[in-house]
Amino acid sequence: MPKKAKKQQQSGGTPATVALTAAGVPFTVHAYDHDPSHPSYGEEAAEAMGVSPDRVFKTLVADVDGTLTVAVVPVAGSLDLKALATAVSGKRAAMADPTLAERTTGYVRGGISPLGQRKKLPTVLDASASTHATICVSAGRRGLEVELSPTDLTHLTGATLAPIARA
Prior knowledge:
alpha+beta; five-stranded mixed sheet; 11 strands
């Protein structure tokens, strides 16, 4: 039985929600009880919120030619590293060292948000996001998601929209 997500209109608890509030962007916070034994943070979030996995996006950090780069893709798919490299005019991409990703963003794995990161990184949002009125991304900790328009997410992160996900 999926856990029910609790809906909240505002929260100032994470750098991501603080950034959204400061920008005056409309958003909804969804909180749920994180299960550490669940095999996928993103799928757990989709199940808990009762939202289609193609509307819940995971935030991944990759190394593109020596530059840490954020990739935001649907939890229903996976990141195409070659497409990510192409999207930022790079040659080669690999997943970043998890410890480096955590230290650079200020968030822990499973809770990395594309918003409010300690260091602003180049960001690419999968083009499929633009087919939805709203999408959900991590709000900065496990068990906390933020729902907002993909246009607002793109604007706030300076993201490039590109087809970087594989089904």
